[in-house]
Amino acid sequence: MTESERLAVVGQSVVRTDALGKVTGDALYPGDINMPGQLYMKIRFSDRAHARITRLDTSAAEQYPGVVAVLTAKDVPVNEYGLIMPDQPVLCGPGGTRPDADIVRCYMDNIALVIAETEEAAAKARDLIAITYEDLPVITDPFAAMRDDAPRLHANTPNNILTHYRIRKGDMQAGWAAAEVIVEGTYRTSWQEHAYLQPEAGLGYIDEQGRVTVVVAGQWTHEDREQIAHALGLPEEAVRVIYPAIGGAFGGREDMSVQIVLALAAYRLRRPVKIVWSREESILGHHKRHPVTVKTRWGATREGKIVAVEAEVVGDAGAYAYTSTKVLGNTNLMVTGPYEIPNAHIDTYAVYTNNIPTGAFRGFGGPQGAFAAEMQMNKLAEALGMDPVTLRQKNVLREGSLLTVGTPVPKGVSIEAVLTACAERSFWQQDGARWQRLPAEQPADPARRRGRGIACAFKNVGFSFGAPEACWAIIELRGDTEIEEVILYHAAAEVGQGVHTVMQQMTAEAVGVPLQKVRLVASDTSSTRNSGSVSASRMTFMSGNAIRGAAEEALKQWQAEERPAVGTYVYRPPRTTPYDPQTGRSEPNFAYGYVSEAVEVEVDLATGQISLVSVHCADDVGRAVNPVQVQGQIEGAVVQAMGYAILEELVVKDGRILNPNLSTYLIPTVLDVPGRIESIILEHPDPLGPWGARGMGEMPYLPLAAAVAAAVKDATGVWFDEIPLTPQRVVQRLREHGLGADL
Q1: Residue 447, pLDDT score
Q2: Do residues 618 and 672 share a domain?
Q3: DSSP code for 647
Q4: What is the CATH number of the domain that holds 533?
Q5: Percent of the chain scored above 70 by pLDDT?
Q6: Are 495 and 517 members of one domain?
Q7: Same domain, yes or no, for 607 and 718?
Q8: Which bin fits 284, alpha (ψ -120 to 50), beta or left (φ > 0)?
Q9: Which of 285, 314, 341 is at the close of a domain?
């Protein structure tokens, strides 16, 4: 009997445990929660991309009827915060603990908090605040920001380079000497807005034990608590963070938005304080996906073996660090794709500008790297006269392959099987060791053309490059002679991905009880231990291993007749190591997920409109703990990546976002969803994963843009090296190639 046959709950497509509350409206999101006597907050954002505040007059706002307080920089005990480094003031303005807090570096900087008896009073008073600025040079181009004569946006950052990663592997001279075909390209990606369902909202108050408490949507309760406590100058145990229902995240809630300011207001006023951002405030006020430019050159032999790759990657970090060091660290690794490259020379930069800060977004750095790598692979296949699947199979990572950082890829490498499954189930047929793409059936309308393309990618599971990794779980078994109830205490955030359901399934499996006996107490720092962030496709992997350990301990106590039996366990995966500053050598990750996507598109030559006809996504998930949720993750990632590839264009001028609403920043709707999305779920167990499970939430996002670009090339004969492929951009380039002008 296989393990698959023995499992009772893991592997079953059970109904999500939060489904009923969310569809009936009973589930409470941060914006739904109220307390007696609560006040309302509005934030005054910066009016400049870069300036010094020389005068801040809040007197008119303070005198407005209903206003209780106006808080500024001088009211913040420790006026700094940041997930990676504390380089951002909580509030910008003169006075307070941070000498450079009088400088605003982007339009999203917070200057003052207005707290009033009504939301309307707070909004009107906010607009009465008078601010005098001394304008400073604005720099929004990361390449210009890196020049020696550029203004320094942070005093301790020469050339505005937040981080510079290097990879130096092999002998580049020998690699280029062996290269018989060389392909060069410059690729550009743009910002992307997270566009989660509920904009930022929350409630701050003092709880019954005197703790400063914040009810908010986030991705890591304990990290939120740590940053709040730091800014307020309080011990962490004096702060409590609770996550109720969360309307999506995608990395957009990893960094602070309203958490610290809510805590500050509740701490100062000792009354409940509520805030709900409008959609416009949300788009203006939280970070975005990094725009990245990749200039790269790949060399291969006539037989299709890649022998050398060099690349320069420049990412716009915006005004503050956020998670740029992690995002560009990933791009640095993934810009060569899931291939074994013997000789590699890569330089990757994260650069401060006066644009909106950029940070984590599904795949964090992987989609940008995958776009460049897969475009190069498809162009290389064309230059060699070789099918793109055949070329990939000659070069994909295998067990024991060395990554560009000089160390072996962790065991469980399945990219070849994933690529094969994708090709077989989509538009390719195999003849021996060679593959051939089947041509698309063309529409009757000569203004429309169809094409097919393929791409693949890999993505880390978990934090990377030496970041500490741990995940706690507590399991309590209740009952007399038999286990009547199992309580799982876990901090993981449920941001729509279904992790709470999966954790309850894994708990039931580990303890050996029906799912109905499991109850979850989640996302409250007062009752749960640190789980780490719900990001990096890590939580199923990490929580599952923690749950197995806690269940084993609890069952030992139960067998010893301790009632209730409580098991506490912290899972720590194999360590990772940071990049060597000069060579890039590292052990970057302990596990990976693998994905391949094939698409068929239809291009309207007259309008430039691109439609996705079908998408086939093969994803190795190791073990599908809840198969229908895996399918949902694949379909959701495909649609979100489709927006990145062809629709979503954030218009930014001189650091200001010009389309901060969903009527002009266009995301996919139900009418844009591809006609067919086939989820090809593979289960090659990860050696370290719980029941073999790999993380997979980000993986289906990564290769889509490159697959779409390859399909557009197949349809039109034109390569597009910049995304999004908006109708205007497509029409312009088609006209340059003499296409569509006569239609």
Answers
A1: 94
A2: yes
A3: I
A4: 3.30.365.10
A5: 99
A6: yes
A7: yes
A8: alpha
A9: 285
- 443-491 confidence digits (pLDDT tens): 999 999 999 999 999 999 999 999 999 999 999 999 999 999 999 999 9
Residues 476 and 501 in one domain: yes
Q: Which domain holds residue 225?
A: 33-136+194-285
413 and 477 part of one domain: no
Q: Which residues, including other chains, have CB under 8 Å from residue 294's CB and lie 6 or more apart?
A: 185, 186, 187, 188, 311, 312, 313, 331, 335, 368, 369, 371, 372
- CATH for 241: 3.90.1170.50
Same domain, 449 and 349: yes
Handedness of CA 614, 618, 621, 623 (dihedral sign): positive
Q: What angle, rounded to 10 degrees, do the helices at 366-384 and 704-716 form?
A: 30
Distance CA 306, CA 289 (A): 30
First-last CA distance in the chain: 63
The pLDDT-based confidence of 293 (bands split at 50, 70, 90) is: very high
Q: What is the mean pLDDT of the chain?
A: 97
- H helix or E strand, kind and range, residue 431: strand 428-431
Residues 86 and 220 in one domain: yes
Mean pLDDT of 617-635: 98
**Domain assignment of residue 167, yes or no:** no
Domain-embedded: residue 175 = no
Whole-angstrom distance, CA of residue 598 vs CA of residue 515? 37
Number of helices (H), then strands (E), belonging to the chain: the values are 18, 27
Q: Which amino acid is at 680?
A: I
Residue 207 lies in a domain: yes
- Domain final position from 266, 285, 304: 285
Helix 388-395 and helix 366-384, axial crossing angle in degrees, nearest 10:
110
Q: Is residue 96 part of a domain?
A: yes
Same domain, 481 and 408: no
Domain count, the chain: 3
120 CB neighbour count, 10 Å cutoff: 12
Rounded Cα gap, residues 497 and 629, in angstroms: 8
1 pLDDT band (50/70/90 cuts)?
very low
Q: Residue 742: pLDDT band by 50, 70, 90 thresholds?
A: confident
Prior bond to 564 cis, omega within 30? yes
pLDDT by residue (tens digit) across 233-291?
999 999 999 999 999 999 999 999 999 999 999 999 999 999 999 999 999 999 999 99
Q: What does the alpha-carbon distance between residue 465 and residue 577 come to, in Å, rounded to a whole number? A: 5
State percent of the chain over pLDDT 90: 98
Return the exposure string of 189-228: e unless at least 16 CB atoms fall within 10 Å of the residue's CB, then b.
bbbbbbbbebbbbbbbbbeeeebbbbbbbbbbbbbbbbbb
Strands 292-300 and 306-318: antiparallel
pLDDT at 60 over 50: yes
